[in-house]
TrEMBL record:
Belongs to the inositol monophosphatase superfamily. It comes from the Bacteria. This is Inositol-1-monophosphatase. The keyword Magnesium applies. It catalyses: a myo-inositol phosphate + H2O = myo-inositol + phosphate. The lineage of its organism: Bacteria, Pseudomonadati, Pseudomonadota, Alphaproteobacteria, Candidatus Puniceispirillales.
Length: 266
């Protein structure tokens, strides 16, 4: 049984508090104020409300820490050496606005450049994925381990398909190329639309791997630690430990990671 640390309790409390308003707004999205940050990059009142609630809860618990949040950007902590909260208040806004129940709240802690804690909360399924560096990854009370599948032919991968405004025409072609390489070698590919949750699902062994280009640090910081603590590999497309810096993510169980990379680059 997992005994949740005080830090994870803070993250859980902030996520649950934010999810209440989110669940109220879900299904009522025709009344939600929506604007755009890019041609197909939407931000709604649900995103900004969740971010405000999360920030207040986290600040109350750790008054000196800084913030890096999707909607409000960076806020320095009282002391520049203090840890920073990295927050995506609503990952999967496009799903949310379409009434598709696949979205999450992602919170991570970065301490001197290292991710030391992370949580991804799926309010629809009431699933809290969390990890602390060196302490393993958990789903609610259960210890997580990445899948043990050894062959691509039996494996299910998640990915992110580019959309209007994400990447150049060449990036879109590159994605089609990757798809045509991976597709005929594996048991299936899914595009769920919430990257933080995709990575949590790799940690949980539901997906055997996942890849996507052009993500932001708040999409992947918590998922990164979840996968690592569940025994999985996370890299960029050149197999370097640079996923967080580049936003280009290739993740899988240790057996499949090299094979997935090879397929993506072939
Ligand atoms: P967001 O909902 O927090 O913005 C995966 O493709 C990531 O890209 C998602 O986690 C999502 O995070 C972001 N994204 C932004 N606009 C998107 C769109 N139109 N379709 C899919 N994902 C989008
Ligand atoms: Ca967004
Ligand atoms: Ca996101
Ligand atoms: Ca978001």
């Amino acid at each position: 049984m997992a005994t949740r640390s005080a830090l994870i309790n803070v993250m859980q409390k902030a996520s649950t508090a934010a999810s209440r308003g989110m669940l109220r707004d879900f299904g009522e999205t025709e009344n939600l104020q929506v604007s755009r940050k890019g041609p197909a990059d939407f931000v709604s009142r649900a995103d900004t409300n969740a971010e405000r609630v999360i920030k207040a809860e986290l600040h109350k618990a750790r008054p000196d820490w800084g913030f890096l949040m999707e909607e409000s950007g960076e806020t320095a902590g009282a002391d520049s050496d203090a840890p920073v909260w990295i927050v995506d208040p609503l990952d999967g806004t496009t799903n949310f606005l379409h009434g598709i129940p696949q979205f999450a709240i992602s919170i991570a802690v970065m301490d001197k450049g290292v991710i030391t804690a992370g949580s991804v909360f799926d309010p629809i399924r009431n699933e809290l994925f969390y990890a602390e560096r060196g302490q393993g990854a958990y789903l609610n009370e259960r210890r997580l381990r990445v899948s043990g599948r050894r062959h691509m032919s039996e494996s299910l991968f998640g990915t992110g398909i580019p959309f209007l405004g994400r990447g150049t025409e060449d990036d879109h072609k590159q994605f089609i190329h990757e798809l045509s390489n991976v597709m005929p070698r594996c048991a299936g590919i899914r595009r769920y639309g919430a990257a933080a949750l995709d990575m949590a699902w790799v940690a949980a062994g539901r997906l055997d791997g996942f890849w996507e280009h052009g993500l932001q640090i708040w999409d992947i910081a918590a998922g990164f630690l979840l996968v690592r603590e569940a025994g999985g590999f996370v890299s960029d497309f050149a197999s370097r430990d640079k996923a967080l810096e580049t936003g280009d993510v290739v993740t899988a169980n240790p057996t499949l990671h090299a094979e997935l990379l090879r397929a993506l680059r072939s």
